[in-house]
Amino acid sequence: MTEGAAFMDWSSTSPEQIWRNSESTVEGNSSSRTADHMTDLCSDEADNSPPLQPHTLKQFEQHLNDLKKENFSLKLRIYFLEERIQQKYEESSEDVYRTNIELKVEVESLKKELQEKQELLDKALYVCK
């Protein structure tokens, strides 16, 4: 994972952009890591490649620490994305409730107006007879 991704401005970036950026970063990192591990773990005897080079404990610890940092960063990204989604859901549901109430009020006022006009029509019909 790149250093810049850890200090990303979450407020100005949409979740879709963050997801696309993280996918490309993770895919790039994981594919290169996979290729590195494959070359480390597999020696093709037909190529007469040199034998596998042993890794030191320090290298394994460094790799483990890098993976832990990446894991933490991804968990943090998931947390903020879920929080953003929840906020958008709450805002949209509040808008729906507000609109629903406004529409109910409008329906009642239109019913009252219709009733008044119906009474005026009945009066006009009675006067004409």
From TrEMBL:
According to the UniProt entry, the coiled-coil residues are 57-127
Pfam families, from UniProt? Cnn_1N (PF07989)
Q: Where is the composition biased (Polar residues)?
A: 10-33
Any idea where the Centrosomin N-terminal motif domain is? 56-124
Q: Residue ranges of region Disordered?
A: 1-55
**What keywords are assigned to this protein?**
Coiled coil, Cytoplasm
* Cell location: Cytoplasm
**What is the recorded name of this protein?**
Centrosomin N-terminal motif 1 domain-containing protein
User: Whose protein is this, by species?
Assistant: Ataeniobius toweri
